[in-house]
Amino acid sequence: MIPRIWTASPARDLLVGRLADQGALGLSTLILAARLDMSTFGRAGLLFVANSLAITLAHWGVGLAVMRLAPEDRLSARMRRQVRLLNLFVLTLLAVGGAIAGGSWGWLGLAVGVLWFVAGEAFIAKAAALNAGWTADLARAEVLGAVTLLAIVTFGPASLLGVALALCMKSAVEVLSIRRVNDRFSEDGSTAWPVDLLISQSLTFSTANVDYLVVWLLIGAGPLGVYTLAYRVGSALQAQIANVASRLSLVDFGRTSGAALGARYLRYVSVLFAVGVVGAVASAAGAPLLPAVLGERWRDVVPVLVVVSIGAPWRFLLGVAGSLAVGTDHGGSLVRWEVVRLLGTAGAVLCGAIAGFPTFVVATSVAAIVGAAALHVVATRRAGLAVPPWMIPAAMVSILLSVALTPAIPTLGR
Predict the structure, then answer these.
(1) Please, are residues 62 and 124 in contact by the beta-carbon 8 Å criterion?
(2) Residues 67 and 189 in one domain
(3) 42-93, pLDDT tens digit by residue?
(4) How far apart are CA 195 and CA 81, in angstroms?
(5) DSSP code string of 253-318
(6) Predicted local distance difference test score (pLDDT) of residue 3
């Protein structure tokens, strides 16, 4: 029997939008891998990280505040104007910095500044649609944004500037597709900023992306390209459902308590992990096809993709642990947990990168597994629950598999 969380109409709308959004990002990764050389592709991966950073931070917490509004409440319109002023300042700063650097950096700085601005607007618009129940509008916006991204990546300029343009236009189309955003704001609305959630999201983003920065700085752009492609493909299937589950569980856990909360938590975690394992097996089985599709220069990505796939199911359990903490009023504790997880992950991938590319890849997988399992242990204890009995044994098996594959990973970079 399919769990009810996946069959309700809002869940279907969110899943359709998420499939379009993440499917387009995943497919655009493959298209760019075929069109760009390995080093340029690695740097393009950093633009996708910049896009994720903008989505995470450019709303300055207002998007999260909108998402948590009660149906009868409104948020202050002044807060939205303040966000726009802040983002205009960031845009100007990036544009000026690019102009000072000169050459192609000028246009790239301007493009990233615009990306920051429109990504903030898009997040707030989509948060308003989700809060108000306009899930069909949200799905339509994400589908149109996905089509725009794919069109520009496929037929636009094969360059870093072309990638930045595609990401900017995707968010711009999403903003223009949701027209009732102002309904969730009023001049006398609430001015409460969810600072704890914004800090927590920032820490989660940093933990999830510190590996890209480390491999680029310590190993090189070529290995970054290999790792980026492996990560994007290895997490493609799970990402479609995990984000939807995180959004729904945040609302669900906040409205449930006692035995019902435990049952809902177990349902979310079990379904997500099962989907993650299926996705990991599919990714690992399909890894040998990548060089045939994208070219022999991507042969080295095959064993990297297998190891990354082992850690992927664990990465997508993180959102549910965060939702459980927030839904049971432990958002402040979540910030402290995320600080510890960030420090642990950064230390692990840094040591791995110093030892070489194979050790780095294994370290990222092990850090994801340990971090996710530990976060669930802490979150469930605070909520008066317990982790599923299979979680710790499954984590140990995943770690052993990752370590055992170290010799198969090629030595790349400096």
Answers:
(1) yes
(2) yes
(3) 888 888 888 888 888 878 878 777 777 777 788 888 888 888 898 899 899 9
(4) 18
(5) HHT--HHHHHHHHHHHHHHHHHHHHHHHHHHHHHTTHHHHHH-GGGTTHHHHHHHHHHHHHHHTTH
(6) 42
Query: Are 74 and 102 within one domain?
Result: yes
d(CA 45, CA 212): 8
Q: Are strands 75-76 and 185-186 parallel, antiparallel or unpaired?
A: parallel
Cα 237 to the center of its chain, rounded Å: 13
Beta bridge partners of 76: 186
Contact 197, 61 (CB under 8 A): yes
- Residue 378 near residue 340, CB atoms below 8 Å: no
- Mean pLDDT on 189-208: 75
Of 169, 193, 217, the one marking the end of a domain is 193
Question: Does the pLDDT of residue 5 top 60, yes or no?
Answer: no
- The pLDDT tens digits for 138-177 are 888 999 999 999 999 999 988 888 998 999 999 999 999 8
Residue whose pair of structure tokens reads 């993440």 in the numeric block: 22
Tokens 């432990």, located at residue: 330
Six-digit token pair at 149?
A: 């991204």
> Which residues, 6+ apart, have CB-to-CB distance to 171 below 8 Å?
115, 118, 119, 121, 122, 145
Look at residue 4 and tell me whether its pLDDT is greater than 50. no
Same structural domain, 200 and 185: no
Q: Which residue has the higher pLDDT, 414 or 145?
A: 145
